[in-house]
Specification:
The complex is a heterodimer of chains A (428) and B (186). Helix content of chain A is 11%, strand content 46%. With 428 residues, chain A is mainly β. In chain A, strands 2, 3, 4, 5, 6 and 7 form a 6-stranded mixed beta sheet that branches. A 5-stranded antiparallel beta sheet of chain A has the order 1-30-29-28-27, with no helix packed on it. In chain A, strands 10-9-8-31 form a 4-stranded antiparallel beta sheet, with no helix packed on it. The longest helix of chain B has 29 residues. Classes of the chains: A mainly beta (428), B alpha+beta (186).
């Protein structure tokens, strides 16, 4: 009987359908929080092209810390003004239930939602969010952030963004590279730069307003900084030889980068306002892939000065360099976690390349991924997840892994081969 | 070692394919030079009566120089243009040297000729590191050519890292083909 009611109710609620990224959770935590996100009731005529409830449950599930209660198990589909029968939700193992509605008003749209604690039998909070058709996805991400923070105590990352590079190959010398900006869930992708020559190493400015990357203008590579809002592009360098691997200093004023203008790949720091260049390394080996520590005092980089690529840490003030990694014969492309306590990098073991994390104090290394050719790790601003590039049958795709390696998610791309992901800072 | 041999064989095959294309080009470009080639014996005999010994020596020297320049050009065009490297290595193999010598001699004798050296890496390892590795490979070739008398200004280098693989095979054979420098006449 209940099932029947449920089916009837389901057929009465207009649920817009839309193709979405298939989230494949290859591994999750043992006891995820069970959450039911009831389809948001549409209180005016016409459908919306975003299923806000689906977006929220996908976001939460992708964190690995939540498990969704399936819609077809729900015994009723209440809106924000309806009474919640807590016993019914307990019966289907929901610990928390989200109810909401979308209505059109004179200003545009009004989204209302509430989060219910099923065992505590109370509303934890409820909000009214004005918006528009275009901001519906942003509102969904905002609600996801609010729920995530309320239930885990950690700031959410669903309103952050990703940059990555897609490549479409027709032959060795006929390729299209695109620099793409998307929501953190891969939604709303938009191309911000396109070239027939490679695009590499997109790096966010600390305020999230600009991106630095390597691209070719003509036949020569250079480092460029592009401002999102205006589309304006500033050339930082296009010296003969390498111009690669840019990284913004935490204050956003400087850019560490690799140049070989003196004959060999070395780390330099460019002052973005004056254009002044300071050479930081001086070694006949390869020095590249600079990345600033969160306090701006150190630069982590890859060097082959010991014969094989390893990670080194330079104290910026006196340029004193210390080797950081000793395990394995290939450790590269390191980046700090936001707390500055650990580094995440590419580590080769048994001839396979994985993402690993090392605590700088204990020197303990934990291998986080088990796919192959894993590279380009970029840490979420709340330090809970790492996005990285991997490949499947030669096609590049992006993966997410939690900082303890327990949650693994693949983000399959729609068509092209994707790589070089970079996770944005917070925008608020 | 087997792999290297295979890679070399594939490289030669690729070069032969390139050469098949080049052969026509060489002939075409050589065509305007035809009138200066040795004349018939009859003409030669009558001409030799008129020219002095010194003129004759000069003419023959020019002829020899032309033939040698043409030979250098032919040798260079026949030489391999793909040079392969070991994983995370940028040192040239012994088997590359004969071909590089042919390019070096031609470039040293023709200061107007220019080459572009494109350094590449296989997909293993990180992209920015591989960009540096591709450049080191191109620099190894540059250094060798300069030692053989080529002017540094005749050489332009660029690294594509792992972004432009020749082979999409994800095995030792494919990877060894991708760790390369391509020498391209401009």
């Amino acid at each position: 009987m209940r099932l029947l009611i449920c089916l009837i109710l389901a057929s009465m609620v207009a649920i817009p359908t839309r193709a979405e990224l298939v989230i494949e959770i290859t591994r999750g935590i043992e006891n995820p929080i069970k959450i039911a996100v009831v389809p948001f009731r549409i209180k005016s005529s016409g459908a919306f092209d975003v299923d806000v409830a689906r977006l929220i449950e996908s976001n939460l599930e992708r964190s690995g810390q939540f498990a969704r209660v399936r819609r077809d198990n729900m015994l009723s589909l209440p809106g924000p003004d309806d009474q919640i029968f807590y016993r019914d939700w307990r019966a289907i193992d929901s610990e928390y239930t989200v109810v909401g509605s979308i209505e059109r008003d004179s200003q545009g749209l009004l989204v209302r939602y509430g989060l219910h604690d099923i065992f505590g039998e109370r509303v934890l909070f409820a909000e009214r969010i004005p918006g528009s058709q275009e901001s519906l996805r942003d509102i969904g991400h905002y609600i996801s952030d609010r729920i995530y923070e309320a239930l885990t105590g950690v700031k959410g990352i669903f309103s952050t963004r990703l940059l990555y590079v897609s490549a479409e190959r027709r032959s060795e010398k006929d390729q299209t590279f695109k620099l793409i900006l998307s929501d953190a869930d891969g939604g709303s992708p938009r191309t911000i730069f396109q070239s027939s020559e490679p695009i590499l190493s997109p790096a966010w400015s600390p305020d999230g307003s600009r991106v630095a990357y390597m691209s070719f203008r003509g036949k020569r590579p250079g480092i460029y900084v592009q401002t999102f809002a205006s589309g304006e592009v500033q050339k930082v360098s296009d010296f003969p030889g390498l111009n690669s691997a840019p990284s913004f200093s935490p204050d956003g004023r400087k850019l560490a980068l690799t140049l070989s203008r003196d004959g060999n790949p070395e780390i330099y720091v460019a002052n973005l306002r004056t254009g002044e260049l300071a050479r930081m390394t001086n070694h006949f080996a390869i020095d590249t892939e600079a990345s600033w520590s969160p306090d701006g005092r150190s630069i982590l980089f890859t060097s082959s000065r010991g014969g094989k690529p390893q990670l080194y840490l330079m104290h910026v003030a006196d340029k004193v360099v210390k080797r950081v990694t000793f395990d394995g014969d290939y450790n590269s492309n390191g980046t700090f976690t936001p707390d500055g306590e650990s580094i995440v990098f590419v580590h080769r073991t048994n001839d396979r390349f994985h993402i690993a994390r090392m605590n700088l104090k204990t020197r303990e290394i934990r291998i986080l991924t088990e796919t192959d050719l894993d590279e380009s790790p970029s840490v979420a601003p709340n330090g809970t997840m790492v996005i990285y590039a991997t490949s499947d049958e030669g096609r590049g795709l992006l993966g997410l892994v939690s900082m303890d390696g327990r949650v693994r998610v693949r983000l399959p791309s729609v068509s092209e081969s994707v790589r070089e992901p970079a996770w944005s800072p917070y925008f608020n | 070692m087997n792999i290297l041999k295979q890679a070399k064989a594939v490289g030669i095959a690729a070069t032969l394919a390139v050469l098949a294309g080049c052969a026509g080009q060489v002939n075409e470009q050589a065509a305007p030079a035809e009138p200066t080639k040795p004349a018939t014996s009859e003409q030669k005999a009558s001409a030799s009566k008129l020219e002095s010994a010194a003129d004759k020596a000069a003419r023959e020297a020019r002829q020899a120089a032309f033939e040698s320049a043409e030979q250098l050009r032919k040798n260079a065009m026949a030489a391999d243009t793909l040079f392969f490297f070991g994983f995370d290595r940028s040192d040239l193999g012994q088997d590359a040297l004969d071909d590089l010598d042919a390019h070096a001699k031609y470039l040293a004798a023709n200061r107007a000729a220019k080459v572009r050296l494109e350094g590449h890496a296989d997909e293993r390892g990180t992209r920015a590191y591989n960009l540096a590795l591709g450049e080191r490979r191109a620099n190894s070739v540059t250094r060798y050519l300069v030692i053989q008398g080529v002017n540094r200004s005749q050489i332009e280098t660029v690294s594509y890292g792992e972004e432009r693989p020749l082979s999409l095979s994800r095995d030792d054979n494919g990877w060894s083909r991708n760790r390369r420098v391509e020498l391209i006449y401009q």
